[in-house]
Structure formats: structure tokens, C-alpha cells
Amino acid sequence: MNKTTAVNISRDNGSGLSGDIPSKAESIVWCSVLVLASALIVIGNIPTIVLFVGNKRLRKKSLFLVINMAVADLMLGAVSLPFYIYRIGQVGYHLWTASMDIYLESFSVIADNVPTVASLVSATSISCERFYALYRPFKHRSLTKRTYLIIILMLWTISALDTALFFLSFHLRFPKHYHYYWLTLGSISIAIMCGCNIAIWRKFRRGTVPGTQHQNRDLQKKRLTTTLLFVSILALLSWLPYIISNTLVFLTDLNIPQRYLVAINFVNYSSAFINPIIYAFKIPEFRQALARSFVRRRATVKVENIEIRVDKRAASTKVTPLRILEGDVRFDVEVVDTSL
């Protein structure tokens, strides 16, 4: 998520960086905050993906895009953010001097571009899907799982093409053309999210959310729409400063201080570890699956503790072996004449 100020393959060395280098203490604090953010993203999204995939009640068509976004967020926290911390510590903060070779640098670009674009377009697709669910409810119900899987494949294809375009633009020595494309993609995505969210909000304000004869289903649909609306608004707020700062850097050659660029990137990453918290509190099925998993784990721990206690008692009890004596056993049988 560090496309800001990219003019070469090390994308923290561009014109948007000012010469104001933070102190060593401030640099260590920011790197520590980013490391904590990376850990929270991984810790939050791994259980989310496991629960969504392993629980049949959560494997709904409307949650496929949520799972896809969780996968993109996990990649951001596990791969993209660590590379960003390494680069910012070397180039921006000068905390270490060791640099990456060209192959590792290229891999870091792929690890940054692919999940970044996937996260952005996933947030956009969630807004569009909820908009379609409210304004075309009957057509939305006819969507199959295959349709959702095709949409997810298209999202990752867009991410892969974005990375290919990035390398092609630098190979042809037209890096600014790529950044204009990136700003266009980001601006369109932000505009679509804004439009969909405003339309959904107006639908709720009017109280005209379409319903059917099944009130329970309608209530679940409304809760899910409210939750995903909150998620998309959070994504919108986390992307706005990022897109605006990129626009100012490339269109006006504005020099943004390093500390502000890092803060903007932190805000951009923050939605990746806040989303699992939203799922846990706002999606009842997810909360119930999480509670059952926790209860099942506690029950397993108790059973293991009981087995350990039994094994210890058995080990502490003295067992007296019984000697079996083998020998001839004779019975004297007395025959009684009962004849009359």
C-alpha cells in the first residue's frame, strides 16, 4: 500500500518525500506501530477465514466477497506490510543499511501491488453487491455461487494485470503513466463506493428496503447490509487520505513530510485489522461460530486435563502383581447311591 511517491522500483524514494527525516526515537516508534498492525492483521484475519470456510452457516453467497477481502487483508498484513516496514526503515528512517537485491525487491513489489489492488476492488465490489441486493432484490437472489466465484476471479485478475502494468511501465521508462492509471483506478473505486453507500443509506432512511414474506430472512439481510455498509464506509475512509495524497504528489509535486506519509499508510492498513472486529460484533452467525469454537476448545482442554489427572493417579497407585500358581487340582468326588 505504499504507492505514494513512487518514481522507481523502490517506491519510497520519490519526489513526495521531503528531507525532514524523523528522529531515531520517532522512527522506532512508527516501525513498532506498523509491526503491531501487521500482527493484528494476521491474528484477526486467520480465524476469520478459518471460520468462514469451515462453518456451513457462514458459507453464504453474500459473504464470499467478505472472505475474499479477508484473504487480501491477510496478504497485506503477512507479506506487504513487513516489506513496507523494511523499506521505510532503510530508505525513510535509516535505521539499517542492508538493502534487498533486485529479485527480492521485485517480489516485494508483487506482494504489495496484488493484495493492495485486491483489497481496494474487493471493498468496491462489496458496495456494489449490497447496492444490487437492495435495488434489484429478485435478480440478486438468482445469482449463483458460480457468479460470485467468477467475480472474485475477475478481481484478482485485475490485481495481477495492475502488477504487470506496473513492471511494464518501468521497463518502458514511463512510470508516471502507470501512476496516472493507478490514480484513475483509485478515484473511480472511491467514487463508486461513495455512490453505492449514499444510495444504500437513502434506502434505509426511506424505510423502503424490499421485503418478502419471510421476515426472519429480511431481518438477516438488513443486518448484513448494515454491517457491510459499515465495512465499505471504513474502507472508504481508509482509502481517501491515501488517494488524495497520491493525487497531490503526482499532480502538484507537493513534498509531504515522511511522518505524514507513514501515518497515511497506517490509516490505509488499519481497516485490515478492524474488519474482523466488525464481523465478530455485527454478524450473528460469525459471533456464534466463534463462541462455539471457543467453547469447544475449552471443553477439549478440560478433557485433556482430566486425562492427565487420571494418568497421574494411575502412575502413583502401587499395583501388586498376582502370582498364578499352576498345579494339579484334584477333587475327591463322593458317589452316593440313591437307589431305593
Please state the average pLDDT score: 79
What would you call the shape? globular
Cα-atom radius of gyration: 30 Å
What class, by secondary structure content? Answer: mainly alpha
The largest sheet, given as strand count, sense and whether it forms a barrel, is:
none
Please state roughly what percent of the residues sit in beta strands, choosing from under 5%, 5-15%, 15-25%, 25-35%, 35-45% or over 45%.
under 5%
Give the helix proportion (percent range). Answer: over 70%
Distance between the termini: 113 Å
Oligomer: single chain
- What is the tally of helical segments? 9
Low-confidence segments, given as residue ranges, are 4-18, 319-340
Number of strands: 0
What's the SSE pattern?
Answer: HHHHHHHHH
How is this structure best described in words?
The protein is an all-alpha fold and 340 residues long. Helices cover 75% and strands 0% of the residues. It contains nine helices and no strands. The N and C termini lie far apart (113 Å). The C terminus is likely disordered.
Keywords:
mainly alpha; globular; disordered C terminus
Fold blueprint:
Blueprint: H1 24-54, H2 64-92, H3 102-135, H4 137-141, H5 145-171, H6 175-206, H7 215-252, H8 258-282, H9 284-316
